[in-house]
Every structure is written in structure tokens, then in C-alpha cells.
Amino acid sequence: MEKYGLAIILGIVAGFIARWLMLRSDHRHYPTYPHGQLTHLALGFIAAGLGAVAIPAIAKPDYVAVTFLVLAAQQFREVRNMERESLNHLEETKIIRRGSDYIEGIARVFEARNYLVIMTALASSAAAYWLSWQYAVAAAIVCIGFSLLLMSGSYIGNIAEVVAAQVNFEGSLLRVDDVIIMNVGLPQTRKKILQEGMGVLIKPKDDDARLTLDAPGQRMAIVHDVVSILGSKVEINETELMPVARKNPDQGYLAVFIVANEADLDYLMEIIRKVPVLESARGTTLKSYFGRKAAD
Amino acid sequence: MDNSISNYILAIVATDEKKVLPGGCPVILASDQEEQVKVSLLLARILGGIVHDLENGLYFICRH
Which candidate from A182, A183, A185 shows the least CB-CB separation from B40? Predict the structure, then answer.
């Protein structure tokens, strides 16, 4: 009985710590919802509990309990729906939207995190049950490290080069370097844009990156992350100062234009480098045979 | 996507009446460029659109 208790407690603790650490890594996705964090910690605790009791239940042997555990694990599918729904609702009142690619990515990540927690708890409690508590601690550390590694993902900075660019006008057409952004009619708006607008070029490093940057969802994510940190001067119904990302069709690089509250170009570039590459937008042409041949 | 032209032209502001034909869109004549800019700005704010310049003396308001 003692052995069961130790295994279960170690499993729960390991799983809960894993969830907590992974929660810390998603502040950028999820900046200001403390109650949301509490929900996820609570769910993480339940997930850890599920993982921790699995091995003792099998060893007991209590197969009914195991069946119930499998049923309970199904509940974590709901996590994805919960995230998706709440973010979609919030989307309606946003001036700059996240885009459904971004929301789907976040929702999927939240679901996956709970499974990683279950696995961490399972591994630790198994180690505690069959070996000893020292092994359980080691297993927990390895699992948590592995989970954090899995969850880190890649960033725009890994797949593209971000450089500063000049905002300019060709007649009434607003451009960032040579990429046309939009037509701006009013002289006073043009003046404001020339004074305060910032432009950045995102140059993809290879064909995969080019396809990734091509995806509208990825571009919305870039613009959303920038605006959520630097702010934007765009107003409801006055969309002249709308931040946008447009591509150069021939070269494939993106031009980002923004009139931000905090006009700091260096941080703008740093923020763009830290934007996550969305799973659903990721280009994989170089992984296919024809893609590689065509890229020659 | 985030802002492509999804609606029709809400109004045209012209200084030269020879440049426009009646075609189902309100056309407003301004006496000079200064008035044209001001009227366009007001219209854009009221209609919730933004002003575009056709570079031939015509401004139009369009919602994105």
C-alpha cells in the first residue's frame, strides 16, 4: 500500500510541475488571462492524477479502474474545443485578429500539453513503483525536459531573415521598399505614415520558409503578435493605418507595415523573429521529391 | 484576408465633372482640391471607409 501511495504522489507532483513549466512557456500566446491559467493548472492536475494512478491500478490488478482511466483521458479532447471556442469568441471584438490558423495552433498545443503531462506522470509513477523514488525523480526530470523541447517549436527567426526597410510612396501607393502595401488617398494620412510608419522585410531562407510566409494565417499571426506588444494606431472604422503583411510575388519575401504606438524598429524586428511558425501554415515543399526537383 | 476590397465604392469625390459618369454610385463635386480632400475625409469618417486616390483628380471612398 505504501508503495502505491508513493508512486501516485510522485507521479502527480511530476505531472503538475510539468504542466506548470509548460504554462510558463506560453505567455506570449496567452498574455493576460489569469483565470485561464488557473483552469489549465487544474486540468493539468487532473491529467497528472490520471497518469499517476494508471500503473498502480494495473499492478493491483484493477482492470476496471484502468478502463475508467482511458475513458477519463478522452475528456482532454475537450480542452482543445474549450480553447478554440473561447479564443474564437474573443476574436469577434478584436480590431487586429489572430486568425483561425493561430487559434487552431494554440488549441492543439494546449491539448498536447495535457497528454505530455499524463506521460510524465505515468513514467514517474512507474519508476517509483518498480524501481525507487530516485529513479522517479530522474524520470520526471527527463520527461519534463523532453516535453519542453517538444513544445518549443520553431520561430520566424529560424526560417527567415528580418531586416529594416524604408516606408515610401510612389504616387498614392504606399510601399515598403519595393512591395506595394495599399493606396492611400489623403495627403495628411500620407504625411503621418511617412513620419511614424515602420517597415520591415522578412526574407525566407529557403522554399519551405517561402511557402510558410505565403500563408495568410501565418501573416495574420505575425501582425497580431506585433500589435499585441507594440500597439497600433488603427481605429475602429478608420482602417487607413491598418498594419499589414504583403509579399513580393517574384522574390517571395514579406513586407510588414505598421504604425505602432511604440515606434521602436529594433524591438519590432525582435518580436517578428519570435513569432511562432504555425503548424498549419508550415511549408513542406522541400520534403517532397517533386518539390526538391522543382527547386533546383 | 485581413484587408482586401470586400465592398463596393461608397462615394466618389471629383473636381472635374467630365471624369465621371452616372453609374449607381454617389458622386460629389468639389470646387478645388482642398475641398475635395476635406469632403473625402469627412465622408470616409462618416461611412467608415477609407479614402483612395486614383491619381487623375478623383478620390473615392471604399470600405475594407
Answer: A185
Q: Which residue has the cell 498614392?
A: A172
Q: List, for residues A88-139, the tens digit of each pLDDT value.
A: 888 888 888 888 888 888 888 888 888 888 888 888 888 888 888 888 888 8
Spatial contact of A233 and A259, defined as CB atoms under 8 Å apart = yes
Q: Which domain holds residue B43?
A: 9-62
In a domain, B41, yes or no: yes
Helices and strands in chain B, H and E counts: 1, 4
A186: chain B residues, CB-CB within 8 Å: 37, 40-41, 44, 51, 53
Top pLDDT among A129 and A163 is at: A163
Cell of A249: 510575388
Task: Give the pLDDT band (50/70/90) at residue B1.
Answer: very low
Number of domains in chain B: 1
- Is B2 part of a structural domain of the chain? no
Interface of B with A in 30-59 (CB under 8 A): 37, 40-41, 44-45, 48, 50-55, 59
- Are A199 and A176 contacting, i.e. CB atoms less than 8 angstroms apart? yes
Contact call for residues A280 and A169 (beta carbons, < 8 A): no
Inform me whether the pLDDT recorded for B2 exceeds 60.
no
Assigned domain for B39 exists: yes
d(CA A202, CA A165) in angstroms, rounded, equals: 10
ipTM exceeding 0.95, yes/no: no
Q: Is residue B4 part of a domain?
A: no
d(CA A245, CA A202): 10
Closest of A54, A29, A267, A285 to residue A151, by C-alpha:
A29
